[in-house]
Amino acid sequence: xxxxxxxxxxxxxxxxxxxxxxxxxxxxxxxxxxxxxxxxxxxxxxxxxxxxxxxxxxxxxxxxxxxxxxxxxxxxxxxxxxxxxxxxxxxxxxxxxxxxxxxxxxxxxxxxxxxxxxxxxxxxxxxxxxxxxxxxxxxxxxxxxxxxxxxxxxxxxxxxxxxxxxxxxxxxxxxxxxxxxxxxxxxxxxxxxxxxxxxxxxxxxxxxxxxxxxxxxxxxxxxxxxxxxxxxxxxxxxxxxxxxxxxxxxxxxxxxxxxxxxxxxxxxxxxxxxxxxxxxxxxxxxxxxxxxxxxxxxxxxxxxxxxxxxxxxxxxxxxxxxxxxxxxxxxxxxxxxxxxxxxxxxxxxxxxxxxxxxxxxxxxxxxxxxxxxxxxxxxxxxxxxxxxxxxxxxxxxxxxxxxxxxxxxxxxxxxxxxxxxxxx
Length: 424
Known about the structure:
Helix content: over 70%
Shape: globular
Number of helices: 21
Largest sheet: none
Order of helices and strands: HHHHHHHHHHHHHHHHHHHHH
Radius of gyration: 22 Å
């Protein structure tokens, strides 16, 4: 009964998001209210149970990085870099799009996706606004690239961290097994976006790059110091054992201390995209509520009785993970799937590693399917809306679902060939 109600709630919420009858933040809060009532009624639970599902690490990470990015924008850095990109690639828009997408994918392999899009989205918007074209296709491209690139390493995407922690697979294991799949998928993605956005690319006009100077160089130096500290702490977070939010909070604290005369704290807080943060809180409660109703466990357990063929199981795990992760945050789904895959491998006496690579690729690539499929999607679209270029749920699906299908198909072929057919 609970599973049916949970699925019905998800269908209702996504129908509201697709129809766009209300702002997505309002829909998320309505969904949270619904699961509050349902869980209390069915489970005689307490509202605190659902409040605890809010991932404060994510909220604090986003808030802190938004403050840093806001300070960076005041220096004129984004406009300056946009002018440089226009000067270099302004007559070759396809190359500009591919360079930005490739750079985003590379950075996302080593830095949290959310941090990557927070830093790169303003650059993209400024660059393509400078070229007098709608920047939204480019924003979509870097979102997709971020989710693809983040899959390549242990630290690039949270599902990989969960898998590595549960299985003992190390950093180089992920590089050796996943980076080739990510590289092939990115090449397919690059070809796809050139076709998908061909009409948009034809709309470029020649623009002579202006010489733009940094507005506030002392502030830029201080922001650069804070960012260097944050990035350095990101790289050692797994060794020391603290969440990414700690690095971001330390960076903000350092920035506010060394630039106290240049940053108005009240203005910095006003620049935080609170609508996006509230959306995340609402959706965390929704996903926590449907998880409590047994929806995620039901999906995971349903895989067990389908097939005992390892290759079929790997393909099934990848495609189910991708489709589910397009609509449900991939973190709770991956958490639910880890013990299921371990049990399947032990029962059938098969190697569990290819199944976990399939779970990682499907869960991470699936985030490109819809606007709510990954945290980076919401953050980048929120920034785009703040600049005056809103990205609708339907527009995201129209472009994101083909990207998801293409990259998952390439990754599935890679897994099947490498681990089952070529391996004999």
